[in-house]
C-alpha cells in the first residue's frame, strides 16, 4: 500500500480544461474501445505493483468520455444509458479499476442533472466537459448501515456551510478535481456537497488495502471544518420523493464492471489454454484446446458471460425507456431490469474468474502471471451490495407486482 496523502498543500493541479467533446453514442463507443485497447496492456502490471493509473485517467479525461452524459443543451452528447453501460463494460474488460474510478463521477453528474439548480448545472457541466473529474466521499465505516451518515453540513456565519466528517471507500477521490460528499443538513436531510480537491480542511488518504480493485485508491476522506458555499450544495433528498432512476443508473454501471471482468477473464483463459496449457495425459491429445472436456467447460462459461452481457444490454434499454417516460411503473421496471442484470452478473463474474484456473491448469496459479487479479477484482467489486436482497425485490415484483423501494441502491 502506498502511503500517499493529499492535503491542500500537496494537491495535484486541477485537470487542464483541454478535453475533446464527444458528439454522440457511436463516437463514445469508438473512443472507449480505443482506450480499452491501450489500458489493457498495462493492467496486470499496474495491479501487481499497485501503480495508480494517473496517466490513464489523464487520457480518460482528455478523451471526452467523462462528459458523455452531459445534456445536449449544455453541449454534451447525452448518450443513452445502454451506451454508457457498454462504455463502462469495455473499460472494465481492459482494467476494472479504471472503470470503477469514474463510476461515481457519472452518478454525481446525474445528481446535478436531477436536482441541481440552473446555475449549478451550467457551472459543473462545463467543468465535466473540460475533462474534470468527480470522486466520491460517500460511505462511512462503523455506522449502523450503509445509509447511516454521521457527516454533517452546518450553516456558517457567512451564509454558507461547514462540513465535518470522515468517509471511507472513497473511490476516485484521490484523482478528483471535485469531491462529492454525502452529508446530512441541519434538518437531517440528505445533501451532496461538491468540494474542490484543494479545499482547506479536506484530506484524502490513500489507505485502501483491498485484495482486489487495488488501484482504485478507495481510501479515506477527512473533512475538518471544510467551508462550502451554498451554491455548491445539492438537495439530494428530493431525488427520492418521486419516481427516480438514481439507483438504477448507479447499479447499471456496477453491473457493467462485473460483466467486463467476466469477459476479460474468459478471454485470457482461452488465450492461456491455446498457447500455454498442457493436455491431460489421459486425453491422448497433443493440445489442451482440443480436449472435449475443456471445450465443454468453455462452452458453459461462454453461455454465462453472453447471458450477463445480454441482461446488461436489456437493463440499459429499460433505463432508457424510463428516461423517455418516467413514472412509477417505468422506474420500477428499470430498477428490476438492472437488479436482474446485477444479480446474474455478480455470481457469473466470480464463477468465471474462478474457473479460469480450472480450465488453464496448475501453471495459471503462478503469482508472476497475475491471473488471479481477475478473481480478486470480481470478488472485491461484487461486495458493493448484496445480490440476495435484489433477488427479494425481483421476486416480490414478479409475484405481486410490488415495486422496489426508492432508496437508491436498486
UniProtKB/TrEMBL annotation:
Q: Provide the E.C. number(s) assigned to this enzyme.
A: 1.-.-.-
UniProt region (Disordered), positions on chain: 1-20
Q: Where is the Acyl-CoA dehydrogenase/oxidase N-terminal domain?
A: 35-131
Q: Which GO terms describe its molecular function?
A: oxidoreductase activity
**UniProt xrefs under Pfam families:** Acyl-CoA_dh_2 (PF08028), Acyl-CoA_dh_M (PF02770), Acyl-CoA_dh_N (PF02771)
- The reply on keyword Phosphoprotein is no
All copies of the Acyl-CoA dehydrogenase C-terminal domain together span 252-385
User: Taxonomically, which superkingdom?
Assistant: Bacteria
Where in this chain does the record put each Acyl-CoA oxidase/dehydrogenase middle domain? 145-226
Q: Keywords of this protein's UniProt record, alphabetized?
A: Flavoprotein, Oxidoreductase
Which intervals carry biased composition (Polar residues)?
Answer: 1-15
Q: Which class of enzymes does this protein belong to? A: oxidoreductase
Q: What is stated as this protein's family in its record? A: Belongs to the HpaH/HsaA monooxygenase family.
Output this protein's name: SfnB family sulfur acquisition oxidoreductase
Source species: Microbispora hainanensis
Amino acid at each position: 500500500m502506498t502511503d500517499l496523502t493529499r492535503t491542500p498543500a500537496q494537491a495535484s493541479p486541477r485537470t487542464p480544461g483541454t478535453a475533446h467533446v464527444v458528439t454522440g453514442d457511436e463516437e463514445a463507443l469508438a473512443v472507449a474501445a480505443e482506450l480499452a485497447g491501450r489500458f489493457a496492456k498495462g493492467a496486470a502490471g499496474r495491479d501487481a505493483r499497485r501503480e495508480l493509473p494517473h496517466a490513464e485517467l489523464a487520457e480518460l479525461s482528455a478523451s471526452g468520455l467523462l462528459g458523455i452524459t452531459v445534456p445536449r443543451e449544455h453541449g454534451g452528447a447525452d448518450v443513452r444509458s445502454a451506451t454508457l453501460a457498454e462504455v463502462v463494460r469495455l473499460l472494465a474488460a481492459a482494467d476494472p479499476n479504471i472503470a470503477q474510478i469514474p463510476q461515481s463521477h457519472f452518478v454525481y453528474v446525474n445528481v446535478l442533472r436531477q436536482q441541481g439548480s440552473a446555475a449549478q448545472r451550467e457551472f459543473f457541466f462545463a467543468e465535466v466537459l473540460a475533462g474534470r473529474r468527480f470522486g466520491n466521499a460517500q460511505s462511512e465505516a462503523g455506522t449502523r448501515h450503509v445509509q447511516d451518515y454521521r457527516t454533517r453540513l452546518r450553516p456558517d456565519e457567512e451564509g454558507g456551510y461547514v462540513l465535518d466528517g470522515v468517509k471511507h471507500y472513497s473511490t476516485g477521490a484521490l484523482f478528483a478535481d471535485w469531491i462529492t460528499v454525502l452529508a446530512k443538513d441541519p434538518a437531517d436531510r440528505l445533501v451532496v456537497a461538491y468540494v474542490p480537491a484543494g479545499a482547506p480542511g479536506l484530506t484524502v488518504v490513500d489507505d485502501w488495502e483491498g485484495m482486489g480493485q487495488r488501484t482504485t485508491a478507495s481510501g479515506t476522506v477527512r473533512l475538518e471544518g471544510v467551508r462550502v458555499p451554498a451554491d455548491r450544495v445539492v438537495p439530494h433528498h428530493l431525488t427520492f420523493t418521486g419516481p427516480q432512476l438514481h439507483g438504477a443508473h448507479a447499479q447499471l454501471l456496477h453491473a457493467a464492471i462485473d460483466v467486463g471482468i467476466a469477459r476479460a477473464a474468459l478471454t485470457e483463459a482461452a488465450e492461456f489454454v491455446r498457447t500455454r496449457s498442457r493436455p491431460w495425459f489421459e486425453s491422448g491429445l497433443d493440445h489442451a484446446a482440443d480436449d472435449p472436456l475443456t471445450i465443454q467447460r468453455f462452452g458453459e462459461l461462454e453461455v454465462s458471460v453472453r447471458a450477463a452481457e445480454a441482461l446488461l444490454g436489456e437493463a440499459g434499454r429499460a433505463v432508457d425507456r424510463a428516461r423517455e417516460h418516467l413514472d412509477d411503473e417505468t422506474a420500477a421496471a428499470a430498477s428490476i431490469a438492472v437488479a436482474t442484470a446485477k444479480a446474474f452478473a455478480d455470481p457469473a463474474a466470480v464463477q468465471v474468474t474462478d474457473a479460469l484456473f480450472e480450465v488453464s491448469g496448475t501453471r495459471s496459479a503462478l503469482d508472476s502471471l497475475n491471473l488471479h487479479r481477475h478473481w480478486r477484482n470480481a470478488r472485491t467489486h461484487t461486495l458493493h451490495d448484496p445480490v440476495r436482497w435484489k433477488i427479494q425485490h425481483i421476486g416480490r415484483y414478479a409475484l405481486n407486482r410490488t415495486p422496489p423501494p426508492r432508496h437508491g441502491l436498486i
